[in-house]
Amino acid sequence: MVFTSILVSGVLLASATLAIDLTLSPGARGGDVVAAVVDRIRSKCIFPNDRLFLRRLAYVETRDGEDSRTYRAGYHGGIWQVDSLKLMVSQTCMSRTIRECNLIQSEFGINWPRVRWAELRKPLYSGLAAAMFILTKMANQIPGDMAGQAQFWRYNFNSFGNIATFVNRAETLRDNVCTDNVIDLAFILDGSGSILPGDFTRTLVFVRNVISGLDISPSTARVAAVEYGDTVAVNFKFNQYSSKQSLLTAVSKINKRHGGTNTAAALGNVTSIIFNQLNGARPDAKHIAILLTDGVSKNVTQTIHAANDLRSKGVTVFAIGVGNVNQAELMGVASNPSCTRMFLLDNFREIDSLMYELRKSSCEAPNILGGNGVGTGGSGNSITREINNGTDKTTVVIPPDQQTGNNGDTDKVFKAEVECGSLQIYSSYDTPNPGPAFHQNKNQATDGSPAILHFTATQKGRPLYITVVGTRLDSTDKVASCVSSKYTLSIVDKSSLQVKQTTDVICRTAGIEKPCTVTDIRNSNLGNYICPVQSTPYISPTNPCTPEAVANDDLVHPHPTDVTKFIFCDVSGKMYITQCPVGEVYNASTGSCNHGTVEVTNGVSLGSDVTNPCTSANLALGNLYFPHPAYHTQFIQCDLFGKAWVMKCPPGQSWHQDLLTCSSKSQDVGRQTSVNPASLCQASGEMYTHPSDSTKFVHCTGRHRGVVQMCPASLVFSQAKRACDWP
Questions:
Q1: What is the CATH number of the domain that holds 245?
Q2: Which DSSP helix (H) or strand (E) runs through 155?
Q3: C-alpha torsion sign, points 344, 112, 29, 726
Q4: Who is most buried in 1, 147, 219, 416, counting CB within 10 A?
Q5: What pLDDT is attached to residue 234?
Q6: Which letter does DSSP use for residue 563 in this model?
Q7: How many structural domains comprise the chain?
Q8: Residues near 228 by Cβ (< 8 Å), separated by ≥ 6?
């Protein structure tokens, strides 16, 4: 369904939307999709320490799927370009990868040895295939440095690749290392007697390199450090140094201590002294602690207890162990998912290989909403952020105990308010970084209209992750009183939300006000207040993936109520509701998403003397274009709200309904104007030039079955390349 919001007393009670999962959408592409795939794989501990290689590999191979050859006919390797032989290698599931095969089955419900190559057109499958193939090739761990990864790629993944090409393309991803730079970062450095002076110097060089990549200032990143052996020394606090150079100088002056490894005492000092507002810790900043140690602590039980106390204050803890360490202890210290926040190194010479990944992971770690919070007994139930440069993005996590009240009921809600801006809010219990490509729920908030998110009772015991993208209003969008733009995220009691009977109700679809329908009210949280007796839950579409449909290779179907979505069937009969790219709608006649518009420009509203063809039935099928009954040089185009617009063909051209385009008479003389897939298609995946329009092609979906698809703007179909290309 098209997203509908209902505004009551300034509170946006968003109706629950179906989950969006572009990672399972065949042919999906883009940075958001790749990031979602990598997050899902890493967070399930399938390939947790990939050192950013999986992310880089997608961009090097296909520019995140944006390369026109990514989904070429006859090749199913997908975004990561995994050929059929590599897939077979990845499916052995013997010794080295049996654990990962079991995780894929338990976490995603995918029987990996039975996956077909054609399924790699789904980004998650392509990413999993790349990860599993890499794991079979790894003698040890994957290199952390760019040059080492380029060589690994050249000799294990793409024998025809160029090492310089890998480095040059991967380097372009560095610009997006830290999109959220309001960070309080504390280093906890083991200086016990077992660490050699040269290794401690390498540790300090590593700390300096991490700091060098951060934006250091009082309003962005702040850094603190402690060093410990038998005792603990606080080297500097968050409010001592506000420039990068002064910090780098302070790090160089840290002296090594000796004695035992009193990790519990060091963690306790960081909890009580470092992450304290009196010493510069900020309640609205992201709180990160990085522990570097080479051995087993004096008391493992006390160490894990101290780490629990630190995490309860909303601090994300990373643990780096070098040499002969207690892996179970480090897992108990690191924040969840611990498999992505605990790193093991053979020696201190490898420590610099973590620099880029750790810096990126620190920037992407979520703010923890709820708990004790930093400061002197203050609450962590809210954070406020400024939108300084047009947009601001942050992710928060709400622990399970913060989603319920004292009686165990879900009597709390998440509230997002914004001043002089707007918010897009993505939430999920299944991924630590929900976004446009993968989320369970999407809400929005605008100036004066907060968003309210109700916790799901059936998800008790699981943390909720929420990504918020704030956009600042342009000066033309609001009066000059908007000097600054900011938003507040908080956890509040349901009882604080009151719905008054005298309040007006306003419904909006895609930001445009419209009359409220009964369905709008019932599908919103207002149904509990206004029509509790008749209120019915949202009913998912009937599954069209019947055994007959799958047997006939009929795998793509229109969504019954939302033209911006379609339903994709897998071979087991499961259905996946798939979102079209932004600005596109599903067209059943072509079997693909095409550009559709909410508002049609350069058109004239259809007169009352002509029957409006933009019925709900046609919209559901994606039928948006119709011939004008009186003029062959004009056609009727529907917008997504059922309004009809009269459009003119270019001079000298007329409308052809069978081609869904305007064309000149000379193009049609002696040429076939309709397509019969039965005469062309002999097997699934074949592609042929359209017989009368070079900007289109026939994509076969099975024997004697196919759909007509359009090339991107300015491109024509090349039969030789079996892809759209420049003319």
A1: 3.40.50.410
A2: helix 146-156
A3: positive
A4: 416
A5: 94
A6: T
A7: 4
A8: 188, 189, 190, 191, 192, 257, 261, 262, 263, 265, 266, 269
